Amino acid sequence: MICRKPTSSPPEWNSPAPSTIYIKIKNIPYETFKARLNEGLVTTELDQIRYRLERRIYCCGVCSKHVNGYCVVTNRKVEAGWICKAFVPKEEFIYLDSRPGSETFPEFRYLSETGLRKSYLEGESPEESSNPKSAESLYEEGVILYRQGRLRLALEAFDRVLSENPKHFPAMFHKGNTLLKLKRYEEALKTFESVSRINPDHPGLWTNTGFALVKLERLRQALEAFERSISLNPVQKNAWEGKDAVLVRMRKCEEELKEFERSLERDPEDAGIWFEKGKCHLRLGELEKSREAFEKALEEKPENAEAWYLKGKVLFEIGSEKAALHAFEKATRKKPDFPEAWYEKGRVFLKLGNPKGAENAFKIAADLWESKGAKAKAETARTKAKKPDSGEK
After folding, report:
1. Is the pLDDT of residue 265 over 70?
2. Largest CB tally within 10 Å, which of 36, 239, 268, 340?
3. How far, in Å, CA of 182 to CA of 1, rounded?
4. What is the pLDDT of residue 37?
5. Residues 222, 242: contact at Cβ < 8 Å?
6. Is position 126 within any domain?
7. How far apart (Å, rounded) are the C-alpha atoms in residues 234 and 297?
8. Where does a domain end: 47, 66, 93?
9. What is the pLDDT of residue 237?
10. What is the per-residue pLDDT across 95-116, written as a single tens digit (0 to 9) for each?
11. DSSP 327-390
12. Domain final position from 209, 243, 277
């Protein structure tokens, strides 16, 4: 008779590495994961997984292998709070932001990246959606595509939902997230601004708005967005990290400004220092100081196309559209292959009620970005060229 040694229970806490969980969730080969890691595309998600493991949010109780109190891998009864190397979260628990059963669980179930809480859908009235089932089906399809990384197809699905119901909060929110991942930051920001008119008290909205603003180098506004998110939901690792990162960058700008002031005391006509000073003020949202610095830089070095471009951005921001247009025209004359200046020129044309001029400027920007390999920016410009009337209001 052969005696078999009974299988021992799994250790109470023997968790897999965050990278292992990421690979299982995404269902991708290790080589793909390494490629994404080298491109910096998985850092945030790995941090989120690590956060859930550290706080034991990920555990046997939310594992896909945990059925009726038993682990189907070990065929043993296990406690809900344990974990082993075979852990893979059930799909509905992938984006948990607090421990199941805690008082905050219903309120903060999903991280800002997902926006999958269906309470918004359930609260819709018949007037808001002429075909709720169709909209819901399209939305779910978009979410699946989004999770698979098929972002352009996901974007099409969300747009189709919004064509039926322009106030479909989850679809609009997820559209913004998709644009953010596609690096179409300006479009993402505009989408989040539209979302805020539907539900201004959604913390994830303000977190992602902050990330879009960081990418657009608008640090002061990004800080305000992160702080608003935290005030709505203090249990948000992403928002706190975003705020800390912005504060570091703002402090660096302030230190650089002090150094620039000392340099200008030695040489008040240094165009390069005035130019860098203007850029720092612009990042900090100090528009008038930024404008003055760019003007000083241009007095000394009027051929600086980027200074004209940034001066134009400041003027546009403060509502001086005609002066901004003049600055962008100066920039494009001095540097014809300057896609950013052409793009901003298109935005000004829209504001001034010249859609044809805007379309032309956006097309030039798209072609220039395409030739430089900046596909995401080219796509943004091409979208604007196709729908110039959907631009600046």
Report:
1. yes
2. 239
3. 63
4. 82
5. yes
6. no
7. 43
8. 93
9. 81
10. 765 555 443 333 223 334 433 3
11. HHHHHHHH-TT-HHHHHHHHHHHHHTT-HHHHHHHHHHHHHHHHHTT-HHHHHHHHHHHH-GGG
12. 243
